[in-house]
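Chain X:
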Amino acid sequence: MTSTAGFLVAYRGSVILAPMTERGDVPGSFRVRVVAEAIDRFAEGGYEATTVDEIAAAAGISRRTFFRQFRSKEDVIFADHEQLLDEVKQYLATDHRDPWAAICDAARLVFAHFQESRDLSLRRYRVVQLVPALRDRELVTVHSYERIFIDYLREARPAESVLKIVGYAAAVTACHNYLLRAMIRGDADATVESLDAALADLRKTYGFASGSGTDQEVVVAKFPAGTPADVIAEAVRRQIETNGR
């Protein structure tokens, strides 16, 4: 995914000239390839025993190129999380009629990303579970999503109770993470649809089940380029229903 263009209900395509990597692929696919090779090496030889040189050789790049893209072996494991954190920030930085629904949509975006790359996510999950330092990094990363949600809601709804905001953000994050791990492990019931249902129930519990607008205008939100179509469709559908109430 890239953040240089965006969606406005329907995708507005752009032709972007990007620098090429050693094998001739653009940076996005290059990073995915290196991450996949690194995780495969970690799974086969162990995280601690695998060297950067081995990863670089498997990916067909130089050690120098590796360190231009990643600061360490640990960064390779969590590379797409860093990208997703940026995309979540970008999404929440756009106009949203209902901020409580907006963070649910942001969580859905993250879930959809990992569902699309489930095989790679499963291999990474298995590696992370074997290394205490990686498990600690994962906890920090999870908290980063929650922190973004809290900061956004406090700015969007300054009159709301801080404790209510913190509780809501934590609950959204917890529902997402529970279903995400279940999906990665192969639970057929852990789907985007089940996440939607869980978050809809959560909004009802907190009293944020619908927007407060009474007019008939449709408010359009921008999405980072690469946002899955079903995430966009669900957000637009929810907004139309809210405006129609």
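Chain Y:
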Amino acid sequence: MRSIVELAWFEDFLEIAATRNFSTAAASRNISQPAFSRRIRALEAWVGAELIDRSTYPVHLTSAGNIFVPRCQEMLRDVYRLRTDCRNAAGASSRLLTFAALHTLAIYFFPKWISQPDMPNAPVRSSMHTGDFLECVEHLSSGKCDFAITYDHPDGPPVLEAGPFESLQIGRDRLVLVSGVDETGKPLFDIDVPEGTRIPYLAYSWSDGYLGKLISLIQSRWRSPLNFSIVYQSSLAEGLKQMAIAGQGVVWLPQICVQKSIAQGELAQIGGQQMSLEIEIRIFRRVGARSRDGEALWKYLSRTAEQTRGHHILDPALTMR
């Protein structure tokens, strides 16, 4: 029996108590169903009693589970209230706002965005965890950060749509297809080639499936199937960019990441606008009590979003040259 319990297990239990369905609860918690089931089992092992009756569909709470629900709710309210009170008592000077962001956004978007002079409590004291898409989602859903910044697109996989999350659009970017260039500045590779011609391709690894799905959406627009041959994979856009500059193949990358290299003649965009896709940059947070600085930031961003609705929103591909 484990002697250490994780706070996330209690939140998992309340989710399954509310939904009575393991797959629905796992989706709301943004983890796989097997991982969610293991966490519920771990909680039951720590409690020393079964809390969920899995013999029925939908599942039901056991007698122990029914006793556990109100105490669990009360405990979580007290824990988060205590955390908020302590953070507020500590004052702004000792509180860092914690972010999780995709590597590309952490490098090319976040520094300029967080340094806007009208940001509340500027300069904002912050810390950053960088990771792939799934890491950022897990960091926010498990309470390891205050905010997550990631890409989003209406036709892409849903991002934190289920569960206690809210989001705001804070920028725009564009996925573009690029190639390295020869000594004359001409692209080394192109996609407007005879059908069946092999095209060396630099791909995102399986761990960053979100951008991979958006790229599949772009590819479906081309008039015939593209004969891509994967020669390199990575979850880091910066690594893929360097491989493209080295002449190893073509790759879809955020424009914010490659605009300087294109301007300097190290890369060339290929395929035209048909092979590109505009994507949103969104910031997510959990609904509920926040620190004073975190709440001030969110109110500022909400106000800015209202003011820019229907107008030009911060576009790093245009403003960060």
